[in-house]
Amino acid sequence: MKNVVVIGAGTMGNGIAHAAAAAGLDVTLVDVNDELLQRAMSAIAANLQRGVDKGKMTAADKVAVVGRIKTAIDLGAIAFADIVIEAIVEKLEAKSDLFAKLDALAQPECILASNTSSISITKMAAVTKRPDKVIGMHFMNPVPVMTLVEVIRGIATSDDTYQRVESLAKQMGKTAIEVNDYPGFVSNRVLMPMINEAIFALYEGVATAAAIDGVMKLGMNHPMGPLTLADFIGLDVCLAILRVLEDGFGDPKYRPCPLLVKMVDAGWLGRKSGRGFYDYRTG
Ligand code: NAD
């Protein structure tokens, strides 16, 4: 693989573009407007600069990595892609709509991958004429740092597609772990109920946010507490994943905590909006 197109230049999309370009791939980053793309390129440059400051790469490497990333607002940019990695909003309708367009525009051999946290790969594949080439490539946040890629096989994903994606993950310095397509896959099926339970504990007044996080950090050796992690992931993303689990399994044990719903309604989305379980507005 040589040409990678990443659709969606938010938290995950800019991280995926960064990691792919750092692995020597030619990357095109696509979003709906230039302002979002410029913000993503600034985030990538700032993240690379941290690597330069720590002596992990040279200033010339940084320039070379940034130079391998082009930006576009037109989906026509995918015409020569070997793989498209979708990282747009976590909504089935938006993703299905996009996958139908990608299928029409991409060359026949192109793999269509989704970075979805929980949505069915099989459903996205079903709107295309190439379900064997549709796969989940679930990177972890922050992408340049985290080594796991959960690779999700839809019901029709071919072995060849899996192997090509596994090699790409390896080229990007990541470790692929193969899972099958059920709501939340493995990562979020296990993680989100824990985060939701931590929010219920806060909601019911069992302890403060700092105390809940402290128990999980010090007692369970987690690098960050579940509420800090939820703020980092984005509370809207957490809520969307819990809804997929609740709908997909039809099991009330995945019911999102009313406090999470209320915070998302208020626009308190965690770090990215400046306020979540903690207040980031003062830096
Ligand atoms: P985000 O809100 O930060 O970014 C989404 C971007 O997609 C925005 O810039 C938006 O303008 C763009 N977009 C929306 N519709 C588009 C379209 N039709 N064409 C082009 N661009 C479009 O979201 P995020 O946190 O980066 O999440 C993206 C995906 O990655 C979601 O599916 C999410 O579940 C998944 N994910 C998120 C995390 C996390 O920690 N945030 C971790 C793993 C996977």
Overview of the molecule:
With 283 residues, the chain is of the alpha/beta class. It contains 11 helices and 8 strands. It has helices at residues 11-22, 34-53, 59-67, 92-105, 121-126, 159-171, 187-203, 209-220, 226-233, 235-249, 258-265, and strands at residues 3-7, 26-30, 69-72, 83-86, 111-114, 134-139, 148-153, 175-180. The longest helix has 20 residues, at 34-53. The protein is globular. The termini are far apart. The mean pLDDT is 97. The chain binds nicotinamide-adenine-dinucleotide (NAD). Residues 7-13, 30-32, 36, 87-90, 94, 98, 115-117, 138, 141, 233-234, 237 line the site of nicotinamide-adenine-dinucleotide.
Give, in spatial order, the strands making up the sheet with the most strands.
3-2-1-4-5-6-7-8
Poorly predicted regions: none
The tally of helices reads 11
Output the structural class: alpha/beta
Give the overall silhouette: globular
Number of strands: 8
Question: Average pLDDT value?
Answer: 97
Could you give the distance between the termini? 40 Å
Largest sheet properties: 8 strands, mixed
Helix content: 40-55%
Q: Could you spell the SSE succession in H and E letters?
A: EHEHHEEHEHEEHEHHHHH
> What bound compounds does this protein have?
nicotinamide-adenine-dinucleotide
Radius of gyration: 19 Å
Strand content: 5-15%
Break the fold down into its secondary structure elements and pairings.
Elements: E1 3-7, H1 11-22, E2 26-30, H2 34-53, H3 59-67, E3 69-72, E4 83-86, H4 92-105, E5 111-114, H5 121-126, E6 134-139, E7 148-153, H6 159-171, E8 175-180, H7 187-203, H8 209-220, H9 226-233, H10 235-249, H11 258-265
Parallel strand pairs: 1-2, 1-4, 2-3, 4-5, 5-6, 7-8
Antiparallel strand pairs: 6-7
Helix pairs in contact: 1-2, 7-9, 7-10
Bound molecules: nicotinamide-adenine-dinucleotide.
